[in-house]
Design a protein that fits this description.
The chain is α/β, with parallel strands linked by helices. The chain has a seven-stranded parallel β-sheet. The chain is globular. This is Dihydrodipicolinate synthase family protein.
C-alpha cells in the first residue's frame, strides 16, 4: 500500500497540541540497557516525518518507571530538540503530587505544550485525593491531559470525576484507556469541551467514531504511516478505508492492551527495521509462543504493505 502523507508544520499558537496522533514512544536501549539518546532523537523525527503529530515521552511504553531522574529529564529534552516542544507531551506521573508537579515544571521549562498525568498510583486514591493531585500539578501552568488507566492504577477516572476536574480547570483532555467505549458518549454530554483521546490502540475505531480528538498511540512506533492513515480515515468518516485497515492491524493493535505491550511493540519495531531492542528489568522477554504470535502478525502487516 502506497500512502502519500503530508506533514503539518508545528505551530506555537495551537492551544490544543494534544490533538492528532501522538505516539507514546518506546525508548531505544543499548546492549548494556543504557539509553541511546541519538537513536531516540532520530526515532522522534522519523515518526513526525511519517505523518505523526507528536510524541509522548516518559509514558509506560517509554519505561519511565525504571529511568533515573537524569535520564528522564534528558529524554524530554531530546524529544524537544528533535521535533519542537509543541509536539511533545511528556508523561509526568510519579508517586507524589509534588514530584509530578516538578516533572510538569521541567516539561514546561523545556518548552513542551502539554503534559500527561496519571492519578495517584501508589495506592487506591479516593475522589478528594485525585482532585488535590491534579490541582497541585496544574500549578505548574502547563495544560494537563489526564490519563485514565484503571487497569494498572486501580483508580478509575469515571466521567463524572473527569467532568469535575475539567470544570475546575485542572485538565483539558483525557487519554481514555478503560476500554469502555460507552464512556465517550457520557463525557460528550457532561463535559463537551473536554477532549477525548484514544488511549488504547485496539479501540481506536470505536472511539474515533464516538468523537475522539486524538490518539495517544503505541503501534505507530513500528507502523506509523498505516496507523496514521487508519486514524485519519476513522475520524474523517471514511469507514471503508478505516475498517479494512483496522482489521489488518488489529492483531497487532490488541497487544497495546496486554501486559507485555512494551516487549511486543519493541519486537515489531525490530522486525520492520527500526530499533526496539530489550527492556529494562523487571520486564522480561516475551515467551516463545508470544514472540511467535507478534512475529507472525508483524510479518503479515509487512506483506500487506502496511509498513
Amino acid at each position: 500500500m502506497t500512502t502519500t502523507m503530508t506533514t503539518t508544520e508545528p505551530t506555537t499558537t495551537d492551544p490544543r497540541p494534544w490533538r492528532g496522533v501522538l505516539v507514546a514512544t518506546a525508548l531505544p536501549l543499548n546492549d548494556d540497557l543504557s539509553v541511546n539518546f541519538d537513536r531516540y532523537a532520530e526515532h522522534c523525527s522519523w515518526l513526525v516525518e511519517n505523518g505523526c503529530d507528536g510524541v509522548v515521552p516518559n509514558g509506560s511504553l517509554g519505561e519511565y518507571q525504571v529511568l533515573t531522574p537524569e535520564e528522564r529529564a534528558r529524554v524530554v529534552e531530546t524529544a524537544v530538540a528533535a521535533i519542537g516542544g509543541e509536539r511533545v507531551m511528556p508523561g509526568v506521573a510519579a508517586y507524589g503530587s509534588a514530584e509530578s508537579r516538578r516533572w510538569a515544571e521541567q516539561a514546561r521549562d523545556a518548552g513542551c505544550g502539554s503534559v500527561m498525568l496519571l492519578p495517584p498510583n501508589a495506592y487506591r486514591a479516593d475522589r478528594r485525593s485525585v482532585l488535590a493531585h491534579y490541582a497541585e500539578v496544574a500549578k505548574a501552568g502547563v495544560p494537563i491531559v489526564a490519563y485514565n488507566n484503571p487497569i494498572d492504577t486501580k483508580v478509575d477516572l469515571v466521567p463524572e470525576l473527569l467532568a469535575e476536574l475539567h470544570a475546575e480547570g485542572c485538565i483539558q483532555a483525557v487519554k481514555e484507556f478503560s476500554g469502555d467505549v460507552r464512556r465517550a458518549y457520557q463525557l460528550a454530554e457532561i463535559a463537551p469541551e473536554l477532549d477525548l483521546l484514544i488511549g488504547a490502540d485496539d479501540v481506536l475505531l470505536e472511539l474515533a467514531l464516538a468523537g475522539a480528538k486524538g490518539w495517544v498511540a503505541g503501534y505507530p512506533n513500528a507502523l506509523p504511516r498505516s496507523s496514521v492513515e487508519l486514524y485519519r480515515a476513522a475520524v474523517g468518516g471514511d469507514l471503508a478505508t478505516a475498517k479494512k485497515l483496522y482489521e489488518q492491524l488489529h492483531p497487532l493493535l490488541r497487544w497495546d492492551s496486554k501486559v507485555e505491550f512494551v516487549q511486543a511493540i519493541k519486537l515489531s519495531m525490530d522486525l520492520v527495521g527500526r530499533h526496539g531492542g530489550a527492556c529494562r528489568p523487571p520486564r522480561v522477554p516475551l515467551l516463545p509462543e508470544q514472540e511467535a504470535v507478534v512475529r507472525a502478525a508483524t510479518e503479515r502487516a509487512v506483506a500487506a504493505g502496511l509498513v
